[in-house]
C-alpha cells in the first residue's frame, strides 16, 4: 500500500500545528498593519506641519514683497503700513491655534508644544503692542471665538490681557 504524507490521517496529526502557524501569521499581519497605520499617521502629521510652515513663509513673503517690516511689527505693533497684514495674520493664526488644540486633545501634539503656543503665540494674538493692535485683536477675537472649540475658548479667555493696561495708559 502506497502511503502518502498528505493522507487525511497524516494531515489531521498536524492540525494543531497548522492552527498555531495560522494564528502566528494572523498576529504578524496585524502587527504589520498597525505599523503601517502608525507610519501613515506620522506622514500625515509631517505633511500638515509642512503646510503650516508653507503658510507662515507665505505670510512673511507677502510682508517682504510689500516692503513691510515684520520685526518692526513684532517689536512695536501695528501701524498704517502693516495694518492690513496684521489683520490677516491674526485671523490666520486663530485657524492654526484651533487646529493645534484639536490635535493636542486627540493626542497628536504633546502638552509642551501646546503650552508654548498658548503662552506665547496665543497671548500675542489676543493682545497687541499698541492701542490700535489691541483694538484689532479684540475685534478679530470677538468675531472668531464662536468658531473656536469651547475648551480652547475658555483657555484663551483666561490668558493675560495686556491690552487693558495699554488702553488705560493711552486714555
Structure report:
The structure is a single chain. With 171 residues, the chain is mainly α. It folds into two domains: 9-65; 69-171, no CATH class. The protein is built from eight helices and no strands. α4 runs antiparallel to α5 and α4 crosses α6. The longest helix is centred in the first third of the chain and has 51 residues, at 15-65. The radius of gyration is 28 Å and the shape is elongated. The protein starts with 7 loop residues before the first helix and ends with a helix. The mean pLDDT is 85.
Sum this structure up briefly:
This protein folds into two domains: 9-65; 69-171, no CATH class. Helix content is 78%, strand content 0%. The chain has helices at residues 8-13, 15-65, 70-76, 83-105, 111-126, 131-144, 150-157, 163-170.
Layout of helices and strands:
Elements lengths: L7 H6 L1 H51 L4 H7 L6 H23 L5 H16 L4 H14 L5 H8 L5 H8 L1
Could you name the key traits of this structure?
171 residues, 78% helix, 0% strand, 8 helices
Uncertain spans:
none
- Taken together, the total number of domains comes to 2
Number of strands: 0
Largest sheet: none
Overall geometry comes to elongated
Amino acid at each position: 500500500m502506497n502511503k502518502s504524507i498528505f493522507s487525511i490521517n497524516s494531515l489531521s496529526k498536524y492540525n494543531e500545528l497548522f492552527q498555531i502557524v495560522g494564528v502566528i501569521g494572523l498576529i504578524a499581519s496585524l502587527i504589520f498593519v498597525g505599523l503601517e497605520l502608525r507610519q501613515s499617521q506620522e506622514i500625515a502629521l509631517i505633511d500638515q506641519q509642512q503646510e503650516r510652515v508653507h503658510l507662515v513663509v507665505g505670510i512673511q513673503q507677502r510682508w517682504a514683497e510689500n516692503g513691510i517690516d515684520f520685526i518692526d511689527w513684532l517689536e512695536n505693533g501695528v501701524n498704517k503700513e502693516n495694518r492690513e497684514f496684521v489683520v490677516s495674520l491674526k485671523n490666520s493664526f486663530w485657524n492654526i491655534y484651533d487646529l493645534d488644540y484639536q490635535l493636542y486633545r486627540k493626542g497628536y501634539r504633546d502638552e509642551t508644544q501646546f503650552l508654548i503656543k498658548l503662552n506665547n503665540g496665543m497671548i500675542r494674538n489676543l493682545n497687541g503692542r499698541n492701542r490700535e493692535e489691541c483694538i484689532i485683536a479684540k475685534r478679530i477675537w470677538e468675531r472668531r471665538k464662536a468658531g473656536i472649540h469651547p475648551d480652547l475658548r475658555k483657555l484663551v479667555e483666561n490668558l493675560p490681557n495686556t491690552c487693558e493696561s495699554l488702553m488705560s495708559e493711552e486714555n
